[in-house]
Amino acid sequence: MPTPPTRLPCSAAGIHAAPPSRARRRAYLYGLGALALALIYLGCRIALAGLADFQTRAFLADWENRRSPPSAQAWAVAHAAAERAVAHYPTAYGPYLERLGYVHAWQHHHAPFGAAHAQPSRAAARDAFRAAIAARPTWPYAWLALAETKLRLLEFDVEFHHALTQAHAHAPWRPDINRRLAELGFTAWPQLDTGPRQATHEAARRALKRLNAASATALFAQATTAGQRPALCRSLDEATRTRLARHCS
Questions:
Q1: What is the CATH number of domain 52-171?
Q2: CA angle, corner 188, sides to 228 and 158, nearest 5?
Q3: Are the CB atoms for 103 and 75 separated by under 8 Å?
Q4: In this model, does residue 15 exceed pLDDT 60?
Q5: Domain boundaries, the chain
Q6: 153/164 Cα distance (integer angstroms)
């Protein structure tokens, strides 16, 4: 029988590596230290951004509950907080950019559409919503906010129609989205093409399936202004039309 080869010890085979030198150990420790510092730095930035966003959301919730524009001082504080949230976060973060847009939009919330003094804040809101959409392109509320802002700017362009279409496409069955889309579409009715007009009626039908007669008043008022109330009532299913008979009699 052939003699099996003799197995060499690890040291003889060259497998046993020499211990790392002091310089290599030091470089390894420096690398770990740099990584830890970087993580601490990023963590601090994210925490600061979160604190600033918490303040921003508190202001927005208060303004929304009161349905009245903020004082100049309150708006300035909220605006500074929203900008800090965006600036501190390490990357472009959609929710923070969207809330910055809402802060800008609230500055002259009740000003007439196209009002000259409200143009700068509304243009800033539009730009913030664009950035939010770039960071989170499938979020329907940002698309809807962009469309609403462009309505207030009287910018009835390709971007306006695209924003309406995207909001509808990404939230086909959200009742609040459909209600706002319908009200927006009826408000801008003379400026809409065939596609957005059909989408407006579809959004209204879907919203009215979930709204009671009192909650549907604003939507029917917008439809009446657009001359679309009879057509809207005819398009409703029998159960919805019966439930909303006070608006469709």
A1: 1.25.40.10
A2: 130
A3: yes
A4: no
A5: 52-171, 174-249
A6: 15
